[in-house]
Amino acid sequence: MTLAGLPRISADPAICGGRPVVAGTRVRVSDVLAMLAEGATPEQIAADFPYLGEDDVRDVLAFAAHQTDHPVVTGPDATAPA
Asked: Global pTM?
């Protein structure tokens, strides 16, 4: 299944243990992120993996950004019982 808003990212229990991958490949999102963290550019990744495009790398980054987003915690709720 592809993920809403990110058609290039999919997750399937039968592929890579259900970890998110670039759709139609077995390239895990975490692998692309690791390459970027090591200094590879989207262009270099696309050149090294001809079945990946720069749009795939951008969707990986968008997926990662979405995964790290969370509500801002500002402190205890003044209306909650103590």
From this structure: 0.80
